[in-house]
Write a sequence for this structure.
């Protein structure tokens, strides 16, 4: 069994990031401190389809952070060009076409996230952020086809899962999307030429695209490039990572409060605690081994540590401490914490149909529809100030605000929101 010698691949493997790798022994030698060629330079691409990334992208961010901590240089590639095409991987339909202004606005939002996880600057291991629109926007179509299109086999491209699945499901795949894998391979070639980037990282669903880039570099420049992927992260229950009952778990504060972010990690399934501590925190491995073996209800202590460490990395020490204190007040003292999400209802609406409980549940993002809200109320799953709501047509009233400016609206034991009268 291969035993990595470089700090980068050793940590990468021990923490559970490794899924597939091209020429792993050669990469291990290249990643050693003091290796010829200087620090290992590696990149991951992120398309700007929204103004924030969500937890589903956190493995990739942590991979770049681990690289930097091991003495490598991260390159964050923003897909200002490829976002105009749309990655077909994992899709049954074409992504929405965004304008240049939309893409620029999204990139500005995403930049805020990376500043929390990576050190940027001009040093040999400082991260840099680049935009593939810098070269893709300038391509001459005929020259590009002549110089690079000849290196791609349509037969092989049709065999890639991102293409094959769409065709098997008889879902349309546009020629625009079909070009995405060629553009991604060309990105690797450009990054190799411009920044001496030698490694592309990504999720296992990107393996075919990554190998294309490795081969294009070899054929065009005889460059020694490498590809390395992590496993796609699913929960022990089989559910997809990065989703909650109320939607995506966003990394930006503007999209999701620190308290909700903390709660996402606190609610981790027991079977996932050890794995998530390895992937999403920087705790020592021996400490993680101890935590994941905690018996019975004590595993909740490990979940709190996971929530604190993950929130600290993404939102800062103060946000993590505040979120934990809010949770303590809600669940231990039964009072309202200052970080709970908040909605408002006008005084003149109290007691009317405009203040129906199921409507407030929708406004708070606790349910997706009126029907779901009514079903929860019928099942005694909704509370106002810890008192069960019995009538599915009930409205919040002035009586609920007696001697207090706010009330607590709860779904089950773990979802709460503050309702403020305005």
């Amino acid at each position: 069994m291969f035993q990595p010698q470089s700090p980068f691949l050793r940590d990468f493997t021990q923490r559970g990031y490794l899924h597939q790798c091209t020429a792993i022994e050669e990469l291990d030698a290249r990643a050693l401190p003091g290796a010829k060629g200087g620090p290992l330079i590696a990149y991951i691409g992120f398309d700007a389809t929204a103004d924030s990334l969500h937890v589903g992208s956190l493995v990739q961010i942590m991979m770049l952070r681990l690289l930097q901590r091991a003495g490598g240089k991260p390159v964050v590639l923003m897909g200002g060009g490829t976002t105009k095409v749309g990655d077909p991987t994992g899709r049954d339909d074409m992504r929405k076409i965004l304008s240049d202004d939309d893409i620029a606005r999204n990139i500005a939002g995403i930049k805020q996230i990376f500043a929390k996880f990576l050190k940027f600057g001009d040093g040999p291991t400082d991260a840099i952020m680049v935009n593939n629109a810098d070269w893709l926007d300038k391509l001459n179509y005929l020259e590009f086809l002549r110089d690079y299109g000849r290196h791609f086999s349509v037969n092989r491209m049709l065999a890639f899962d991102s293409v094959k699945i769409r065709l098997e499901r008889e879902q349309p795949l546009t020629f625009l999307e079909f070009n995405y894998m060629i553009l991604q391979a060309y990105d690797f070639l450009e990054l190799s030429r411009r920044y001496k980037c030698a490694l592309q990282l990504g999720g296992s669903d990107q393996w075919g695209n990554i190998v294309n880039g490795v081969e294009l570099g070899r054929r065009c420049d005889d460059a020694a490039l490498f590809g390395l992927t992590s496993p796609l992260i699913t929960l022990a229950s089989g559910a997809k990572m990065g989703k909650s009952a109320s939607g995506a778990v966003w990394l930006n504060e503007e999209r999701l409060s620190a308290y909700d972010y903390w709660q996402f990690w606190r609610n981790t399934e027991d079977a996932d605690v050890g794995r998530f501590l390895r992937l999403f925190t920087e705790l020592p491995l021996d400490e993680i081994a101890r935590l994941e073996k905690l018996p019975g209800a004590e595993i909740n202590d490990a979940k709190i540590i996971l929530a604190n460490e993950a929130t600290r990395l993404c939102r800062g020490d103060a946000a993590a401490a505040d979120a934990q204190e809010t949770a303590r007040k809600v669940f231990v003292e039964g009072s309202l914490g200052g970080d709970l999400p908040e909605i408002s209802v006008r005084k003149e609406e109290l007691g009317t149909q405009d203040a129906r409980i199921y409507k407030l549940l929708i406004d708070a993002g606790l349910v997706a529809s009126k029907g779901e809200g009514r079903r929860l109320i019928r099942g005694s799953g909704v509370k106002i100030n810890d008192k069960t709501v019995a009538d599915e047509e009930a409205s919040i009233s002035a009586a609920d605000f007696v001697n207090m400016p706010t009330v607590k609206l709860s779904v089950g034991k773990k979802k709460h929101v503050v309702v403020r009268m305005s």
